[in-house]
Design a protein that fits this description.
Layout: E1 4-6, E2 13-15, H1 17-38, H2 45-58, E3 63-67, H3 73-80, E4 84-89, H4 92-96, E5 103-105, E6 118-124, H5 135-145, E7 146-157, E8 162-166, E9 175-179, H6 183-192, E10 195-204, E11 208-216
């Protein structure tokens, strides 16, 4: 049974962590086709800059996982930049929306990837659906699948709070769970998970985005 409570003075209704992920997945199943057409997630100078930077640092043929890839716009762009990229998303319907090959249904909290099997992880606007209490575990999982000195590119929604938000381009009531992070909080979480941050860039669209480039510390954590 879903446990829902309201944060005092905010009017924001929250669900428990497990249901937040499951219900958001259900929403993406319903809106997959609309999302794929509405969100042109592969365009934009800011995105090309970040992915180009990663491709340059890694070199051609590097193994990259696009975690929370949705329909795969950015997975495709990573491949165009010479990387061996695979998309991972919890929603099977989202993965099939653009019929891009090499996509895998997976939960970012328990990735079906061998320890140390990747050169890089790219996660753009996907961690924002993970309840705050689960974030440290997800970051630890990102670190697990990276080789020593592997790279992480992470885009989060900058701000405060978490809760349900209506999908703006749907007339029916479809909601997704959103979690916002301050720069200080996500930096602390990344460092606690065994990453060192070497770059960050802010971008504003309908939300305020913070993209962090980080490396996996090679020492035991």
């Amino acid at each position: 049974m879903t446990q829902v409570h309201e944060t005092a003075g905010t009017g924001v209704r929250h669900a428990d962590s497990v249901d937040a992920v499951a219900l958001t997945q259900r929403t993406y199943t319903v809106i997959a086709a609309d999302y794929a057409g509405h969100q042109n997630r592969g365009d934009g100078d800011w995105l090309s800059t970040h992915l180009g930077r990663m491709a340059e640092e890694l070199g051609p043929g590097a193994r990259v996982a696009d975690i929370g890839c949705g329909p795969g716009h950015q997975t495709r762009l990573l491949r165009e930049k010479g990387l061996r990229a695979y998309g991972f998303d919890l929603s099977y319907d989202m993965l099939g929306a653009l019929e891009i090959p090499g996509m895998v249904q997976a939960d970012m909290r328990a990735l079906p990837i061998a320890t140390g099997g990747l050169d890089a992880v790219w996660c753009s606007a996907a961690l924002l659906h993970i309840p705050r209490a689960m974030v440290p575990g997800v970051l630890a999982e990102f670190r697990r699948v990276l080789r020593p000195e592997g790279l992480l590119g992470l885009t989060i929604a900058e701000g405060e709070g978490e809760g349900w938000e209506q999908v703006p381009y749907r007339e029916d009531e479809q909601r997704r769970y959103f979690v916002y992070h301050s720069a200080e909080a996500i930096t602390t979480a990344l460092e606690g998970a065994g990453f060192r941050i070497f770059g960050q860039i802010r971008t504003s669209t309908h939300r305020n985005w913070l993209t962090l480039h980080a490396g996996r510390n090679s020492g035991v954590h």
